[in-house]
Design goal:
By secondary structure, the protein is mostly helical. It folds into 3 domains: 49 residues; 93 residues, Type II secretion system (T2SS), domain F (Receptor-associated Protein, Up-down Bundle), CATH 1.20.81.30; 251 residues, Receptor-associated Protein. Strands 2-1-3 form a 3-stranded antiparallel beta sheet, covered by helices on one side. Helix 3 packs antiparallel against helix 8, helix 7 runs antiparallel to helix 8 and helix 8 runs antiparallel to helix 9. The radius of gyration is 31 Å and the shape is extended.
């Protein structure tokens, strides 16, 4: 972005000059035409006006804003709209205090487009970081004259959704991190400690037990081929990531993960909790069920669950009740389907899905607690057993020799 100087005819047809903020020459012409200006000459920004931060954002060198920053922005806007502050003025106030460079620029662009006559949801639609859910809810808030209330609900929804995702991600990452650290420790023992014992034992010329010989052979293999193994692991990871990027690979992997003990249950309940809360928020804002389902399905990370919910949406479009196709999904609890059915019959589907999301969120907490209790001792026993086996294998010949069991 930069300030481009123009000379030409303004919307009254009079000679005039001015400045326009744009990303390039084409963008500058487009903006000026929208303002009714007919430029004859457009000069690029002076090198003295070069903005390093803007350039870094354009090159993708600055990290995009996340949920945390967006929640703060949403709450600030909600408070000011509720206090009767005009939208443009509210956006200008937020712009001045915003610290994140990407969000700061987005707020500036939104304020600019709103000042040109666009609605705030139309202005947000073209900005990265404002997804379909956000834009649709803001549109519903503007249409219904309850923008402040919708923004507050949206902030609460994003906070809750982020909490669930962090819980699920943390629960999945913890055992992986512990296993990786354990593997590094065992590798260190095999490559640096065991060879010292091997030299000592070879010096005595005594025979060693089978378990000791196995550990010695493994240590020798790791010492000779560690770099090959690391290279193989990196190559395998790249191939796996590439395969996971395909539709077939994504579906196959997601289907496999769903069938894993505990982990599968966590993935299912975490995704359904996010889906239910998002749907409840959109329905509560007055958005139609079909439109809400279209947006909510995109919030589901697991492709198998997303496909199943897509089939539910298709049947709802065909005229069936919402609860009926849900009952056919094997992993969707019957009790929850019954709650949805009651919500449809009473006309309180949004409130019922809020309750459904709370049920799933409680179950996510319970599954994470059970995983921690079960996985921690298993990891400790397995890693401890491997380390103990290595140490026993190395010291066993020494003890046997000291006891006169070997010559």
């Amino acid at each position: 972005m930069g300030n481009w100087k123009w000379e030409g005819l303004n919307k009254e047809g009079k000679r005039s000059t001015g400045m326009v903020e744009a990303t390039g020459l084409r963008d500058a012409r487009k903006i000026l035409r929208a303002q009714g200006v007919r430029p004859r000459k457009i000069s690029p920004p002076s090198i003295l006006e070069f903005d390093l931060t803007e350039w870094m954002i354009d090159q993708g060198l600055v990290a995009p804003f996340g949920t945390k920053e967006l929640v703060v922005f949403t709450r600030q806007l909600s408070v000011m709209v509720n206090a009767g502050v005009p939208i443009i003025q509210a956006l200008e106030i937020i712009y001045k205090s915003e610290k994140h460079p990407v969000l700061k620029r987005s707020v500036k662009s939104i304020a600019k487009e709103v000042s040109e006559g666009k609605t705030i949801n139309e202005a947000m639609e073209h900005q990265k970081g404002f997804n379909k859910l956000y834009v649709n809810l803001v549109r519903a808030g503007e249409t219904g004259g309850i923008l402040d209330q919708i923004l507050e609900k949206l902030a609460e929804h994003m906070e809750k959704q982020q909490k669930i995702k962090k819980q699920v991600k943390g629960a999945l990452q913890y055992p992986m991190i512990v296993c990786v650290i354990g593997a590094i420790v065992i590798w260190g023992l095999m490559v640096f400690v065991v060879p010292q014992f091997v030299e000592m034992l070879e010096g005595t010329g005594q025979k060693v037990p089978g378990v000791t010989q196995f550990v010695m052979n493994t240590a020798e293999f790791l010492g000779n081929y560690s770099m090959h193994l690391v290279g193989g692991l990196i190559l395998s990871a790249l191939i796996f990531k590439s395969w996971l990027g395909t539709k077939v690979g994504k579906i196959a992997f997601d289907n496999f993960v769903m069938k894993l003990p505990l982990f599968g249950e966590l993935i299912i309940k975490g995704n359904l909790a996010t889906f239910s809360r998002t749907l409840a928020t959109m329905l509560g804002a007055g958005i139609t069920l079909t439109e809400s389902l279209n947006v909510c399905i995109e919030t589901v990370d697991n492709s198998v669950i997303a496909e199943d919910l897509g089939n539910v949406r298709d049947q709802v479009v065909q005229g069936k009740t919402f609860a009926e196709p849900l009952m056919r999904i094997s992993y969707f609890p019957e009790m929850i389907s019954s709650m949805v059915k009651v919500g449809e019959q009473t006309g309180n589907l949004d409130m019922m899905f809020f309750k459904v999301s709370e049920v799933f969120e409680d179950e996510v907490d319970e599954v994470i607690g059970n995983m921690t209790k079960l996985i921690e001792p298993i990891i400790i026993v397995v890693l401890g057993g491997m380390v103990a086996t290595i140490l026993i294998a190395m010291y066993l010949p020494i003890f046997m020799s000291a006891g006169g069991g070997m010559e």
